[in-house]
Amino acid sequence: MAxxxxxxxxxxxxxxxxxxxxxxASDLFVFRxxxxxxxxxxxxxxxxxxxxxxxxxxxxxxxxxxxALSGDSVVRRSQAEPRQVFGPYYARSVAVxxxxxxxxxxxxxxxxxxxxxxxxxxSELAQFASEGVLEVAPAKRLADELEVLxxxxxxxxxxxxxxDEALQHLVDQAxxxxxxxxxxxxxxxxxxxxxxxxxxxxxxxxxxxxxxDAIAVIAERRSFPLCIQRADAxxxxxxxxxxxxxxxxxxxxxxxxxxxxxxxxxxxxxxxxGFTLLCQSLGTKLVDAAEPLLVAALLRDTMRxxxxxxxxxxxxxxxxxxxxxxxWNEKLLTATPSIEEPLSIIQCDCRGLxxxxxxxxxxxxxxxLRRVAAVLTSSVRTHDLVARIGGDEFAILLHGDExxxxxxxxxxxxxxxVGRAVGQPxxxxxxGTSTARDExxxxxxxxxxxxxxxxxxxxxxxxxxxxx
Length: 468
Description:
There is one protein chain. This protein is an alpha+beta fold. It contains 13 helices and 15 strands. It has a six-stranded antiparallel beta sheet, sandwiched between helices. A hairpin with a 4-residue loop joins β7 and β8 (192-197). The termini are far apart.
């Protein structure tokens, strides 16, 4: 039942919510013409209240609005499922009322329009709404500005130590702030994909493999930003088609530190809607705010990678690729042998290396060192450490007792004999071993070193001979 009109509307203030209720509508929008055939939404009820000042439409782009402006009657539309009415607004049923060339009122329904509400009543209710809503309230404009500010602050204050974390934080924040169900960011040059899927309640989730082909196609687009309020009007590839439940999407360009894009998607998983002007502005501001964060995060990644590379090089022997003395000493400081888990040290000296260098040159000598390194590495297990700790000295930190050390030494002997190729110089290894259970590894290494030196002092023919 429509509110009873009065000669002086001020005598009986009627709220937009009451007008919408009288029309049986869930949403009410009042539009004013701002120039040409463009109209701005200034207030209403339901979503019409929350979207005041952030929806702008063109009669040339909205068929229902154009139809209402071209005639004097109320334009109604109903369908089985919610469809786009104008801009970001979706509804099952709608009635558009033209009050003048400058004013339109839209009633939106989540179901059918009640048969008891006539066009005359809708027109009367629309007039009440138009008279009650004159402009967007300053408090509403301030609230919208604060919403943008808070979203940007949340983005800036979020943890993002790495580039991947920073990109994921952008996707998460943008998807949440724009009330989307799905967000995807893609950086082609890095092959990086970040996904936020808020449809967990439906047991739906996307993985990088699911979207790889689609985002490669989307990346070829050159129009940014691109806001599509009806996905079926400009389809994306699966799994972002309208047939996949996508209603509207928003594409934003990422330019720094590498080119890419951010895709934000509204789906049927929640109340149907598109992107308001506030949402679109918020999206661009989030991207603008995120790009310096992405640059800084990538710089930190580069510095970490460089530090790691330098650290690895500082602990690697350049000739054999094994751990060097620095890495060996660090390992001895942190390793902790026990009675239950003993550790053994095997030390090897390449006897005759100096003679080979003097006779055949350092190139041949270095190749021999690499062959010995390969034999030692292949004779131990992955959790054992092999290091070159001096010019002709190697050491092994072995997880195991004396019996295990004996097994490893036998493997080394056999591998050196089998692995020697025709024409390659022979070499002898002086070997010492020692096992630690409840003492420091420094003392253990000293015993292994003493055994090795004792073997080295023996005549070459009397020492353990290992041919490579």
